[in-house]
Amino acid sequence: MVESISDEELNALMQAMKNRYGLDFTNYEKKSFKRSIVRLMMKHKIGSMLELWSRILKDKQFFLDGIDDLLVNLTELFRNPDAWIMIRDNILDKFKNKSQLKIWHAGCSTGEEVYTMSMVLDEKGMLYKTKSLATDLSDAALNKAKNGVYSLLIMKQYLKPFLEFYPKRKMDDFFEFQEKDAVIRQDYKRHITFKKHNLVQDHVHEKFDIIFCRNVMIYFDETLKLKVLNLFNDCLNEGGYLVIGYYDIMPDGGKQIFDTYDVRTRIYKKKINKY
Fold it and tell me: Following CA atoms 118, 123, 129, 132 in sequence, which dihedral angle do they give, to the nearest 10 degrees?
């Protein structure tokens, strides 16, 4: 079905969404976005692009609800444990003498990454001095992140990476387990501000020491990747770090503003301004 959507149809739909709702998907990677369109159509039993076009332009709530299908929110607790081990054992030590640590989780999805970082900060004794901003375009994902409530079924899936990082800890050190769900303890969310934000269009008028943007840029073309990377560069303090996803690829243009700190865990460092 993906092949049945022409580039012309896709471009026209993206332009219509931009004009109607101010959300710009025109630089998203086309094959990935087509798959997202198909997922949305199948979910709502929509048989043609024309029908989808009409539904999106006439029904704002349908479009806002459909953002979750257009944006693939993939995250998990302690995803890629070796990255978190590098952050704990190496990166955070760079900031141990700083009075305040500021972190931005860009594209935070449903919050598992944000709360993972809270646990790591707590272990390092740095949670008390940290301020974190967690942003996403999806209202539904943000609400789930704010609530910090996860089903027991999904928590079971998170147990293996959790134990890779914390072989001697228990999940209920960090979560209150209930009949069907687990709720993140308040100590691990007080320092977090959740905010709706569009990486493609919105500015951020703050400076951070670490920015996470994991497995978001895989859906962007080169032009959009560089736009977002320049935003991150502007928002990072001198010597700040950028953590991207294992499937994200740093474009050549990004290597002009970021040095590779650890290629295995996809951690980059803002280049020092020598002028």
Answer: -20
CB-CB contact of 136 with 196 (8 Å): yes
Helices 49-58 and 7-21 meet at what angle, rounded to 10? 0
Question: DSSP letter string over 98-164?
Answer: -S-EEEEEET-TTSHHHHHHHHHHHHTT-GGGEEEEEEES-HHHHHHHHHTEEEHHHHHHHHHHHHH
Residue with tokens 């999106």: 56
CA dist., res. 69 & res. 230, Å (int):
27
Q: What is the pTM of this model?
A: 0.81
Q: How far, in Å, CA of 76 to CA of 80, rounded?
A: 9
Span 175-205, pLDDT tens digits: 999 999 999 999 999 999 999 998 888 889 9
CA 110 to each of CA 65, 117, 259: distance values in angstroms, whole numbers, following the listed order: 15, 14, 29
b/e 64-89 (16+ beta carbons within 10 angstroms → b): eebbbbbbebebbbbbbbebbebbbe
Instruction: Give the DSSP H/E element, type plus range, for residue 33.
Output: helix 30-43
Q: How far apart are CA 147 and CA 142, in angstroms?
A: 9
CA 76 to CA 241: how far, in whole Å? 21
Q: 104 — alpha (psi -120 to 50), left (phi > 0) or beta?
A: beta
Tokens at residue 36, please? 């997202």
**For the segment 34-87, what is each residue's pLDDT rounded down to a tens digit?**
888 888 888 888 888 888 888 888 888 888 777 766 766 567 899 889 999 999
Question: Are 254 and 229 in contact, with CB atoms under 8 Å apart?
Answer: yes
